[in-house]
Amino acid sequence: MPIYDFARRALFLLDPEAAHGASVAGLKTGLVPPCSMRADPRLAVRLAGLDFPNPIGLAAGYDKNAEVPQAILRLGFGFTEVGTLTPRAQAGNPKPRMFRLVADRGVINRLGFNNEGHDAAFARLSALKAGGGLHSSGLLGVNIGANKDAEDRIADYVSGIHRFYDLAHYFTVNISSPNTPGLRDLQARESLSALLKAVLAAREEHHERSGRLVPVFLKIAPDLTEEGMDDIAEEVLAHALDGLIISNTTLSREGLKDKGQAQEAGGLSGAPLFRRSTAVLARMRKRLGPHMPIIGVGGVSSAETALDKIRAGADLVQLYSGMVYHGPTIAADIRRGLSMALDRLQAPSLASLRDSDVEKWAAETL
To answer: Which residues contact 214 (CB under 8 A, 6 or more apart)?
Structure first.
Protein backbone atom coordinates (compact mmCIF):
# COMPACT_ATOMS: atom_id res chain seq x y z
CA MET A 1 0.00 0.00 0.00
CA PRO A 2 1.51 3.39 -0.96
CA ILE A 3 2.45 5.45 2.07
CA TYR A 4 -0.09 8.20 1.30
CA ASP A 5 -2.93 5.67 1.01
CA PHE A 6 -1.93 4.30 4.40
CA ALA A 7 -1.77 7.81 5.90
CA ARG A 8 -5.18 8.71 4.46
CA ARG A 9 -6.76 5.58 5.91
CA ALA A 10 -5.23 6.38 9.28
CA LEU A 11 -6.53 9.95 9.15
CA PHE A 12 -10.00 8.73 8.18
CA LEU A 13 -10.16 6.85 11.47
CA LEU A 14 -10.13 10.26 13.18
CA ASP A 15 -12.86 12.85 13.44
CA PRO A 16 -12.51 15.09 10.34
CA GLU A 17 -11.45 18.14 12.33
CA ALA A 18 -8.92 16.12 14.31
CA ALA A 19 -7.59 14.67 11.06
CA HIS A 20 -7.22 18.17 9.68
CA GLY A 21 -5.21 19.18 12.73
CA ALA A 22 -3.01 16.12 12.36
CA SER A 23 -2.29 16.92 8.71
CA VAL A 24 -1.27 20.48 9.59
CA ALA A 25 0.97 19.09 12.32
CA GLY A 26 2.53 16.74 9.77
CA LEU A 27 3.37 19.65 7.50
CA LYS A 28 4.89 21.55 10.42
CA THR A 29 7.21 18.69 11.26
CA GLY A 30 8.38 18.22 7.69
CA LEU A 31 7.15 14.62 7.52
CA VAL A 32 5.60 15.29 4.11
CA PRO A 33 8.35 15.50 1.48
CA PRO A 34 8.36 18.46 -0.92
CA CYS A 35 7.44 18.24 -4.57
CA SER A 36 10.55 17.86 -6.74
CA MET A 37 8.79 18.33 -10.08
CA ARG A 38 10.37 20.74 -12.53
CA ALA A 39 8.25 23.76 -13.38
CA ASP A 40 6.50 23.76 -16.76
CA PRO A 41 6.56 27.33 -18.11
CA ARG A 42 3.37 26.61 -20.09
CA LEU A 43 1.51 26.38 -16.76
CA ALA A 44 2.65 29.79 -15.53
CA VAL A 45 -0.07 32.44 -15.38
CA ARG A 46 0.26 36.21 -15.13
CA LEU A 47 -2.86 37.58 -13.49
CA ALA A 48 -3.76 40.86 -11.78
CA GLY A 49 -0.12 41.94 -11.97
CA LEU A 50 1.09 38.74 -10.29
CA ASP A 51 3.15 35.88 -11.70
CA PHE A 52 1.77 32.51 -10.62
CA PRO A 53 4.28 29.70 -11.21
CA ASN A 54 1.39 27.31 -11.86
CA PRO A 55 -2.41 27.61 -11.70
CA ILE A 56 -3.08 25.27 -8.75
CA GLY A 57 -3.83 26.92 -5.42
CA LEU A 58 -4.91 25.71 -1.99
CA ALA A 59 -8.10 27.45 -0.97
CA ALA A 60 -8.71 29.18 2.34
CA GLY A 61 -9.97 26.97 5.14
CA TYR A 62 -7.02 24.60 5.36
CA ASP A 63 -4.34 26.90 6.77
CA LYS A 64 -6.73 29.01 8.81
CA ASN A 65 -4.07 30.52 11.08
CA ALA A 66 -1.16 30.92 8.64
CA GLU A 67 0.76 28.08 10.27
CA VAL A 68 2.15 26.27 7.21
CA PRO A 69 2.04 28.42 4.03
CA GLN A 70 5.60 27.57 2.98
CA ALA A 71 5.10 23.85 3.57
CA ILE A 72 1.99 23.96 1.39
CA LEU A 73 3.81 25.74 -1.42
CA ARG A 74 6.55 23.11 -1.25
CA LEU A 75 3.92 20.48 -2.10
CA GLY A 76 3.78 21.98 -5.58
CA PHE A 77 1.00 24.52 -5.26
CA GLY A 78 1.52 27.76 -7.16
CA PHE A 79 -0.24 29.75 -4.47
CA THR A 80 -1.93 29.28 -1.12
CA GLU A 81 -4.53 31.26 0.76
CA VAL A 82 -4.51 31.60 4.56
CA GLY A 83 -7.61 32.27 6.65
CA THR A 84 -10.39 33.16 6.79
CA LEU A 85 -8.94 35.63 9.33
CA THR A 86 -11.09 37.84 11.54
CA PRO A 87 -9.82 40.77 13.62
CA ARG A 88 -10.46 39.01 16.92
CA ALA A 89 -9.97 35.35 17.66
CA GLN A 90 -13.16 33.31 17.73
CA ALA A 91 -13.97 29.70 18.48
CA GLY A 92 -16.46 29.18 15.68
CA ASN A 93 -19.52 26.96 15.92
CA PRO A 94 -19.97 24.05 18.37
CA LYS A 95 -18.39 20.69 17.52
CA PRO A 96 -18.85 18.39 15.69
CA ARG A 97 -18.82 20.71 12.69
CA MET A 98 -17.05 18.82 9.89
CA PHE A 99 -18.44 15.74 8.15
CA ARG A 100 -17.06 13.52 5.40
CA LEU A 101 -19.40 12.24 2.71
CA VAL A 102 -17.08 9.50 1.49
CA ALA A 103 -19.46 8.00 -1.06
CA ASP A 104 -19.84 11.45 -2.63
CA ARG A 105 -16.21 12.58 -2.21
CA GLY A 106 -17.57 15.60 -0.38
CA VAL A 107 -17.23 17.47 2.90
CA ILE A 108 -19.80 19.44 4.90
CA ASN A 109 -18.50 22.03 7.32
CA ARG A 110 -20.08 24.58 9.60
CA LEU A 111 -16.88 25.78 11.22
CA GLY A 112 -17.89 29.44 11.41
CA PHE A 113 -14.59 31.28 10.81
CA ASN A 114 -12.81 29.62 13.74
CA ASN A 115 -9.37 31.24 13.87
CA GLU A 116 -6.85 32.83 16.23
CA GLY A 117 -7.38 36.34 14.88
CA HIS A 118 -5.26 38.91 13.10
CA ASP A 119 -2.53 39.19 15.71
CA ALA A 120 -1.53 35.52 15.69
CA ALA A 121 -1.46 35.25 11.91
CA PHE A 122 0.37 38.57 11.57
CA ALA A 123 3.08 37.38 13.95
CA ARG A 124 3.61 34.14 12.03
CA LEU A 125 3.70 35.78 8.61
CA SER A 126 5.98 38.56 9.85
CA ALA A 127 8.41 35.97 11.20
CA LEU A 128 8.39 34.19 7.84
CA LYS A 129 9.07 37.46 6.06
CA ALA A 130 11.92 38.33 8.42
CA GLY A 131 13.45 34.93 7.73
CA GLY A 132 13.21 35.39 3.98
CA GLY A 133 10.77 32.51 3.55
CA LEU A 134 7.47 34.24 3.01
CA HIS A 135 7.45 34.60 -0.77
CA SER A 136 10.28 32.33 -1.82
CA SER A 137 8.40 29.57 -3.66
CA GLY A 138 4.91 30.80 -4.54
CA LEU A 139 2.26 33.40 -3.86
CA LEU A 140 0.37 34.07 -0.63
CA GLY A 141 -3.24 35.18 -0.44
CA VAL A 142 -4.86 36.45 2.75
CA ASN A 143 -8.56 35.68 3.09
CA ILE A 144 -10.29 38.22 5.33
CA GLY A 145 -13.64 38.06 7.08
CA ALA A 146 -15.73 39.59 9.84
CA ASN A 147 -16.25 38.46 13.41
CA LYS A 148 -19.63 36.89 14.08
CA ASP A 149 -20.47 39.53 16.71
CA ALA A 150 -18.97 42.49 14.83
CA GLU A 151 -20.92 45.72 15.21
CA ASP A 152 -19.54 46.92 11.86
CA ARG A 153 -18.67 44.07 9.54
CA ILE A 154 -17.31 46.33 6.81
CA ALA A 155 -14.85 47.78 9.34
CA ASP A 156 -13.60 44.24 10.03
CA TYR A 157 -12.74 43.76 6.36
CA VAL A 158 -11.02 47.13 6.21
CA SER A 159 -9.02 46.12 9.29
CA GLY A 160 -7.76 43.05 7.42
CA ILE A 161 -6.50 45.17 4.54
CA HIS A 162 -4.61 47.46 6.91
CA ARG A 163 -3.17 44.63 8.98
CA PHE A 164 -1.82 42.40 6.22
CA TYR A 165 -1.08 44.79 3.36
CA ASP A 166 2.69 44.44 3.60
CA LEU A 167 2.50 40.64 3.81
CA ALA A 168 -0.07 39.56 1.21
CA HIS A 169 0.35 39.04 -2.50
CA TYR A 170 -3.42 39.36 -2.80
CA PHE A 171 -6.51 39.63 -0.61
CA THR A 172 -9.73 37.65 -0.76
CA VAL A 173 -12.83 39.33 0.65
CA ASN A 174 -14.93 36.41 1.87
CA ILE A 175 -18.61 37.33 2.06
CA SER A 176 -19.94 33.96 0.96
CA SER A 177 -19.48 31.53 3.83
CA PRO A 178 -22.89 30.10 4.83
CA ASN A 179 -21.73 29.48 8.39
CA THR A 180 -21.76 33.05 9.77
CA PRO A 181 -25.37 34.26 10.11
CA GLY A 182 -26.12 37.15 7.79
CA LEU A 183 -22.71 37.17 6.10
CA ARG A 184 -24.08 36.36 2.65
CA ASP A 185 -26.32 39.43 2.95
CA LEU A 186 -23.19 41.41 2.02
CA GLN A 187 -23.63 40.02 -1.51
CA ALA A 188 -26.78 42.15 -1.87
CA ARG A 189 -26.12 45.06 -4.20
CA GLU A 190 -26.29 48.02 -1.81
CA SER A 191 -24.26 46.26 0.90
CA LEU A 192 -21.72 44.98 -1.63
CA SER A 193 -21.23 48.46 -3.06
CA ALA A 194 -20.51 49.89 0.39
CA LEU A 195 -18.13 47.05 1.22
CA LEU A 196 -16.13 47.29 -2.01
CA LYS A 197 -15.89 51.05 -1.73
CA ALA A 198 -14.48 50.83 1.79
CA VAL A 199 -12.08 47.96 1.11
CA LEU A 200 -10.69 49.50 -2.07
CA ALA A 201 -10.30 52.88 -0.36
CA ALA A 202 -8.20 51.17 2.33
CA ARG A 203 -6.15 49.46 -0.38
CA GLU A 204 -5.58 52.80 -2.10
CA GLU A 205 -4.23 54.35 1.13
CA HIS A 206 -1.49 51.72 1.19
CA HIS A 207 -0.92 51.91 -2.54
CA GLU A 208 -0.21 55.62 -2.29
CA ARG A 209 2.08 55.07 0.69
CA SER A 210 4.09 52.15 -0.64
CA GLY A 211 3.66 52.28 -4.41
CA ARG A 212 2.68 48.59 -4.25
CA LEU A 213 -0.79 47.63 -5.47
CA VAL A 214 -2.11 44.44 -3.86
CA PRO A 215 -5.00 42.89 -5.81
CA VAL A 216 -8.35 42.36 -4.09
CA PHE A 217 -10.56 39.42 -5.10
CA LEU A 218 -14.16 38.78 -4.03
CA LYS A 219 -15.27 35.26 -3.12
CA ILE A 220 -18.90 34.60 -3.91
CA ALA A 221 -21.42 31.83 -3.25
CA PRO A 222 -22.64 29.25 -5.78
CA ASP A 223 -26.25 29.61 -4.61
CA LEU A 224 -26.96 32.91 -6.36
CA THR A 225 -30.01 33.76 -8.44
CA GLU A 226 -29.61 35.18 -11.93
CA GLU A 227 -30.51 38.58 -10.51
CA GLY A 228 -27.90 38.16 -7.79
CA MET A 229 -25.24 37.34 -10.39
CA ASP A 230 -26.27 40.40 -12.38
CA ASP A 231 -25.92 42.65 -9.33
CA ILE A 232 -22.52 41.28 -8.34
CA ALA A 233 -21.18 41.56 -11.89
CA GLU A 234 -22.31 45.17 -12.18
CA GLU A 235 -20.80 46.16 -8.82
CA VAL A 236 -17.52 44.35 -9.52
CA LEU A 237 -17.16 46.16 -12.83
CA ALA A 238 -18.27 49.51 -11.39
CA HIS A 239 -15.62 49.36 -8.66
CA ALA A 240 -12.89 47.98 -10.94
CA LEU A 241 -12.28 45.04 -8.62
CA ASP A 242 -9.25 42.89 -9.43
CA GLY A 243 -11.09 39.59 -9.75
CA LEU A 244 -13.55 37.00 -8.47
CA ILE A 245 -13.18 33.64 -6.74
CA ILE A 246 -16.03 31.32 -7.70
CA SER A 247 -17.17 29.73 -5.50
CA ASN A 248 -17.56 29.07 -1.82
CA THR A 249 -19.45 26.04 -0.46
CA THR A 250 -23.09 25.34 -1.31
CA LEU A 251 -26.20 24.81 0.77
CA SER A 252 -27.59 22.51 -1.92
CA ARG A 253 -27.80 18.78 -1.19
CA GLU A 254 -28.91 17.75 -4.67
CA GLY A 255 -27.95 14.27 -5.82
CA LEU A 256 -26.05 13.11 -2.73
CA LYS A 257 -25.65 9.39 -2.05
CA ASP A 258 -24.94 9.80 1.67
CA LYS A 259 -28.43 10.71 2.86
CA GLY A 260 -27.40 10.59 6.53
CA GLN A 261 -24.56 13.09 6.49
CA ALA A 262 -26.48 15.19 3.98
CA GLN A 263 -28.80 16.19 6.82
CA GLU A 264 -26.00 18.06 8.57
CA ALA A 265 -26.14 21.86 8.37
CA GLY A 266 -23.29 23.74 6.75
CA GLY A 267 -21.59 24.30 3.43
CA LEU A 268 -20.95 21.38 1.08
CA SER A 269 -17.65 21.20 -0.81
CA GLY A 270 -15.81 18.64 -2.88
CA ALA A 271 -17.02 16.67 -5.90
CA PRO A 272 -20.75 17.42 -5.40
CA LEU A 273 -20.00 21.15 -5.75
CA PHE A 274 -18.21 20.81 -9.08
CA ARG A 275 -21.08 21.13 -11.54
CA ARG A 276 -22.88 23.99 -9.79
CA SER A 277 -19.74 26.03 -9.11
CA THR A 278 -18.48 25.57 -12.68
CA ALA A 279 -21.83 26.63 -14.14
CA VAL A 280 -21.84 29.79 -12.00
CA LEU A 281 -18.24 30.45 -13.06
CA ALA A 282 -19.19 30.28 -16.74
CA ARG A 283 -22.23 32.51 -16.23
CA MET A 284 -20.13 35.10 -14.44
CA ARG A 285 -17.46 34.94 -17.17
CA LYS A 286 -20.15 35.81 -19.71
CA ARG A 287 -21.31 38.71 -17.57
CA LEU A 288 -17.83 40.06 -16.82
CA GLY A 289 -16.18 39.67 -20.20
CA PRO A 290 -12.77 38.24 -21.10
CA HIS A 291 -10.51 40.53 -19.07
CA MET A 292 -11.73 40.02 -15.48
CA PRO A 293 -9.51 37.55 -13.57
CA ILE A 294 -11.45 34.57 -12.18
CA ILE A 295 -10.26 31.80 -9.88
CA GLY A 296 -12.39 28.66 -10.09
CA VAL A 297 -13.04 26.61 -6.95
CA GLY A 298 -15.26 23.67 -6.18
CA GLY A 299 -14.69 19.99 -6.88
CA VAL A 300 -11.22 20.26 -8.39
CA SER A 301 -9.49 16.93 -7.81
CA SER A 302 -7.69 16.09 -11.05
CA ALA A 303 -6.17 17.57 -14.17
CA GLU A 304 -9.47 16.89 -15.95
CA THR A 305 -11.57 18.87 -13.46
CA ALA A 306 -9.00 21.67 -13.37
CA LEU A 307 -9.06 21.86 -17.15
CA ASP A 308 -12.87 21.91 -17.13
CA LYS A 309 -12.76 24.98 -14.87
CA ILE A 310 -10.30 26.69 -17.20
CA ARG A 311 -12.40 25.88 -20.26
CA ALA A 312 -15.41 27.31 -18.39
CA GLY A 313 -13.61 30.62 -17.87
CA ALA A 314 -11.16 30.29 -14.96
CA ASP A 315 -7.62 31.63 -15.10
CA LEU A 316 -6.53 29.75 -11.98
CA VAL A 317 -8.09 27.04 -9.80
CA GLN A 318 -8.12 26.25 -6.11
CA LEU A 319 -8.91 23.09 -4.19
CA TYR A 320 -9.23 21.92 -0.60
CA SER A 321 -11.56 18.93 -0.23
CA GLY A 322 -9.70 17.23 -3.08
CA MET A 323 -6.64 17.01 -0.83
CA VAL A 324 -8.73 15.24 1.81
CA TYR A 325 -9.42 12.39 -0.61
CA HIS A 326 -6.32 12.43 -2.81
CA GLY A 327 -3.55 13.39 -0.40
CA PRO A 328 -0.66 15.86 -0.44
CA THR A 329 0.56 14.91 -3.93
CA ILE A 330 -2.58 16.29 -5.55
CA ALA A 331 -1.01 19.54 -6.77
CA ALA A 332 1.89 17.70 -8.40
CA ASP A 333 -0.48 15.14 -9.91
CA ILE A 334 -2.66 17.86 -11.43
CA ARG A 335 0.32 19.76 -12.78
CA ARG A 336 1.64 16.60 -14.40
CA GLY A 337 -1.75 15.90 -15.94
CA LEU A 338 -2.11 19.45 -17.25
CA SER A 339 1.31 19.29 -18.92
CA MET A 340 0.30 16.02 -20.58
CA ALA A 341 -2.97 17.60 -21.73
CA LEU A 342 -1.10 20.51 -23.32
CA ASP A 343 1.13 18.01 -25.12
CA ARG A 344 -1.87 16.03 -26.35
CA LEU A 345 -3.77 19.11 -27.50
CA GLN A 346 -0.63 20.76 -28.91
CA ALA A 347 -1.62 23.90 -26.98
CA PRO A 348 1.01 26.53 -26.19
CA SER A 349 -0.43 27.39 -22.76
CA LEU A 350 -3.40 26.94 -20.48
CA ALA A 351 -4.52 30.47 -21.31
CA SER A 352 -5.08 29.37 -24.90
CA LEU A 353 -7.74 26.91 -23.67
CA ARG A 354 -9.62 29.31 -21.41
CA ASP A 355 -13.27 29.98 -22.29
CA SER A 356 -13.48 27.21 -24.89
CA ASP A 357 -16.48 25.64 -23.10
CA VAL A 358 -18.07 28.73 -21.55
CA GLU A 359 -21.31 28.36 -23.46
CA LYS A 360 -21.66 24.69 -22.58
CA TRP A 361 -21.14 25.25 -18.87
CA ALA A 362 -23.26 28.39 -18.75
CA ALA A 363 -26.17 26.36 -20.10
CA GLU A 364 -26.05 23.91 -17.18
CA THR A 365 -29.17 23.96 -15.03
CA LEU A 366 -28.60 25.23 -11.51
So the answer is: 165, 168, 169, 170, 171, 203, 206, 207
